[in-house]
TrEMBL record:
<feature type="transmembrane region" description="Helical">
    <location>
        <begin position="6"/>
        <end position="27"/>
    </location>
</feature>
<keyword id="KW-0812">Transmembrane</keyword>
<protein>
    <recommendedName>
        <fullName>YtxH domain-containing protein</fullName>
    </recommendedName>
</protein>
<keyword id="KW-0472">Membrane</keyword>
<keyword id="KW-1133">Transmembrane helix</keyword>
Length: 58
């Protein structure tokens, strides 16, 4: 089950990278900045969530 979860997350990440690579070149500077800022925010929230789940399990 763990292998399937990692595979699913990896597949989603790859799809996200490909989609962003197709969309980002058509954006202006402020939109790119906003996307980058939102991405950092989501990354930080995911890290916090991961740490919380890890602490809860362990």
């Amino acid at each position: 089950m763990r292998g399937k979860l990692i595979s699913t997350i990896t597949t989603g990440a790859i799809i996200g990278v490909v989609a962003s690579a197709m969309i980002v070149p058509n954006m202006d500077r402020s939109t790119k900045r906003r996307v980058r800022k939102t991405g950092k925010m989501v990354k930080n929230m995911a890290e916090d969530m991961y740490d919380s789940v890890k602490d809860y399990i362990l």
